[in-house]
């Protein structure tokens, strides 16, 4: 089961995710991210502190969303905030920790857009 909460932190959109992002929930997760990007919300912070498990399907969705955000108006981005230890390990093992900007707190990630 996955829970996704979206809130506006103008100009940043905060997407808080909790639960398991696996093959059963990855499409729902990706659809929610795509929905934000399609609505013009292209400065995204993805808070992964509540994610206990992320499969390769979940990783694929965040990579796809990063690409979509960057293509949108040529200035979008998707940054990660406080990934759980398990998610951080998966990001490191897959090499995605070198592609994403990862912050230790939500505020740091949000403020990185404002600097």
How many separate domains?
1
How much strand?
A: 25-35%
Tell me, rounded to a whole number, the average pLDDT. Answer: 96
Tally of DSSP helical segments: 4
The counted number of beta strands is 5
Percent range for helical residues? 40-55%
What CATH architecture do you see? 2-Layer Sandwich
Order of neighbouring strands in the sheet with most strands: 1-2-3-4-5
Question: Helix and strand layout, with pairings?
Answer:
Layout: E1 2-9, E2 12-21, H1 26-38, E3 43-54, H2 56-71, E4 77-81, H3 85-94, E5 102-103, H4 106-114
Helix pairs in contact: 1-2
Properties at a glance:
single chain, 115 residues, alpha/beta, Transcription Regulator spoIIAA, 5-stranded mixed β-sheet
Overview of the structural elements:
The chain is α/β, with parallel strands linked by helices. It has one domain: STAS domain (Transcription Regulator spoIIAA), CATH 3.30.750.24. It has four helices and five strands, in the order ββαβαβαβα. It has helices spanning 26-38, 56-71, 85-94, 106-114, and strands at 2-9, 12-21, 43-54, 77-81, 102-103. The protein has a five-stranded mixed β-sheet with strand order 1-2-3-4-5. The longest helix is centred in the middle third of the chain and has 16 residues, at 56-71. 32% of the residues are buried.
């Amino acid at each position: 089961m996955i829970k996704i909460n979206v809130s506006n932190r103008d100009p940043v959109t905060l997407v808080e995710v909790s639960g398991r992002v696996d093959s059963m929930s990855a499409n729902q997760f990706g659809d929610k991210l795509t929905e934000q990007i399609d609505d013009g919300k292209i400065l995204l912070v993805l808070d992964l502190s509540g994610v206990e498990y992320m499969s390769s399907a979940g990783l694929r969705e965040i990579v796809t969303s990063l690409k979509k955000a960057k293509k949108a108006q040529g200035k979008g981005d998707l940054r990660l905030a406080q990934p759980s230890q398990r998610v951080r390990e998966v990001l490191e093992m897959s090499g995605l920790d070198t592609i994403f900007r990862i912050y230790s707190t939500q505020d740091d990630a949000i403020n990185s857009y404002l600097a």
